[in-house]
Design a protein that fits this description.
globular, disordered N terminus, alpha/beta, five-stranded parallel β-sheet, about 40% helix, seven-stranded mixed β-sheet
Length: about 525
């Protein structure tokens, strides 16, 4: 389509929405005016009432059922998305499989670096959109938007890395005069399903490594936060990504998403979300490669020799960032009995001092809403059940709409739902334990196994936790969530089957190892 035709198309089909039709910087990398026109189609201002559409290899949908996206703080409509149907999903699969001219490693790295530059230049714009979809505080949204560019920069580095190996043939008595080589080829087409809690960085962590590997990808974002994902997709086109390498579909679970999960032509599936959804998807995915990150119930173990001030500060930070909606957020504190009372009181004081809650748009707010009122009601239920079982609320404990106040509870029973389930919000239950053995026992009785942290000055005790706790990650004197964007990330048990994410591992996931051998005279 020529630009003028696209503008007329927008005016005819989406007249209630005001689109920006002035040129967008960075489009010079586009190969044609049609490429530029696609960016104009998605150039709507970030704010209430925006309208976007699913994208099939860069092409907007002309019509379809619309999905409304609401601002959790006040229930207002942030925007709408034109959803894809079965035929749209089929077209995305066909285009991805058909492919196009493959980019060199250098070209893939350049696309990722340009996209990172564009993200860095638009942090405030993306942060505002994230806030209007999630209700998270402006502080957290800005941090989220700032991370995404870093993810892409690490992906650009991985695009240049060759991890093939060479195996000599003369290591057996027969002494073959050959060498065997391994190379990693990209899967033809992958499917990535992302959650609501990190709507931009989760997309970056799925899409960036796919681009680095050279794999075509269909991105299916959460229906709660699709606007951020579509904006990110458009930014990648603007950075010069070939259209066939990425489609972004928003559609109903059945038949659209379920159909994609079951489609045997899709060679790899990566999913981040709840354990229940992961189990359902695993039953449909068949023999394709899969990577699941399914949440957690992370604990902070505070041993008797811990630095109390550090433990309290990190504990609050680990509990309330992102309104507690992180799979690696501190979900429970296992504190040495002689410290438990003081720790809980100091944690409550730190919570009230440093984590004010309220209007997400207020720069003073540190804890905004959770994703919707239903989620807040569930958190409120966990608190009530814990109190009925003998727990004491030291601060918070109340709900207002989708906002759950940061809450510290003391004396929570080990059997409380708050201890067993993934309470996805700003709740901090403190449980007294009689030493390291009991703390490890409580950790390992959880059906989750994603992340743990231990606060101690004793290196031997710290290493004992590392060795004995059945989890994917252990941090010493740090929050469970600590990570680098390119390092391995993932859990075991119901947190996932052990396949790791993180940029370096994800690039491997999007590839298949092929081996070949050659005659090698002398066998050296």
């Amino acid at each position: 389509m020529r630009l003028g035709r696209v503008v007329r198309y927008i005016e005819n089909n989406f007249s209630p929405v005001k689109y920006i039709t002035k040129p967008i910087r960075g489009v010079r990398e586009a190969r044609s005016m049609a490429h530029a026109a696609r960016f104009h189609f998605l150039g709507c201002g970030v704010g209430m009432g925006m309208l976007m559409t699913s994208l099939i290899a860069g092409e907007p949908l002309g019509a379809g059922e619309r999905l409304a996206v609401h601002y959790p703080w006040d229930g207002s409509v942030t925007g709408e998305v034109v959803m894809a149907g079965v035929e749209d999903a089929e077209r995305a699969v066909e285009i991805g499989l058909r492919g196009g001219k493959r980019l060199t490693r250098h070209e893939r790295a350049e696309v990722l670096r340009r996209a990172a530059d564009l993200l860095d230049a638009r942090v405030e714009e993306h942060a505002r959109l994230i806030r209007l979809e999630t209700g998270l505080s402006a502080f957290d949204c800005r941090a989220e938007a700032s991370r995404a560019g870093l993810v892409l920069r690490f992906a650009a580095m991985e695009a240049l890395r060759e991890e093939g190996m060479v195996w000599p043939g003369d290591v057996t008595p027969a002494g073959f005069a050959r060498k065997l080589f391994t190379v990693r080829e990209p899967v033809r087409l992958a499917l990535a399903i992302t959650p609501f809690n990190h709507p931009l960085t989760q997309c970056a962590h799925k899409v960036g490594p796919a681009i680095a590997a050279g794999a075509a990808l269909i991105l299916k974002p959460s229906e709660k936060t699709p606007l951020t994902a579509l904006t990110f997709t458009a930014l990648l086109y603007e950075a010069g990504l070939p259209w066939w390498m990425l489609s972004c579909l928003v559609g109903p679970l059945e038949p659209v998403v379920g159909g994609l999960v079951r489609d045997g032509r899709i060679e790899a599936l990566t999913f981040t979300g709840s354990a229940g959804a992961g189990r359902a998807i695993s039953g449909m995915a068949g023999l394709k490669k899969t990577c699941y990150e399914l949440g957690g119930n992370a604990e902070m173990i505070v041993l008797g020799d811990a630095d109390m001030e550090l433990a309290v500060r990190l504990g609050a930070e680990g509990s309330y960032r992102n309104s507690g909606q992180r799979c690696t957020a501190v979900k429970r504190f296992l504190v040495a009995r002689r410290l438990a009372g003081e720790f809980a009181e100091r944690l409550a004081a730190e919570t009230e001092r440093l984590f004010p809650w309220g209007d997400p748009g207020d720069e003073a707010t540190r804890v905004g809403t959770v994703i919707n009122e239903a989620a807040a009601r569930q958190l409120e239920g966990y608190v009530r059940e814990a109190v009925a079982g003998g727990a004491e609320v030291l601060c918070g404990g109340e709900r207002r709409g989708a906002l759950m106040m940061p809450t510290v509870l003391r004396g929570v029973a080990r059997t409380a739902a708050l201890m067993r389930e993934e309470a996805f919000g700003p709740l901090s239950p403190v449980v007294a334990v009689d030493g390291l053995d009991e703390a490890v026992e409580i950790c390992n009785e959880s059906r989750y196994g994603l992340a743990t942290s231990v606060m101690t000055r004793d290196l031997g005790a710290a290493l004992a936790v590392v060795e004995r706790v059945r989890t994917g990650m252990v941090q010493v004197n740090e929050v469970p969530a600590w990570r680098l964007e390119h390092t391995p990330f993932g859990g075991i048990k119901e947190s996932g089957p052990g396949v790791k994410e993180g940029v370096a591992e994800a690039v491997k996931f999007y590839g298949q190892v092929k081996s070949f051998s050659l005659p090698w005279p002398g066998g050296m």
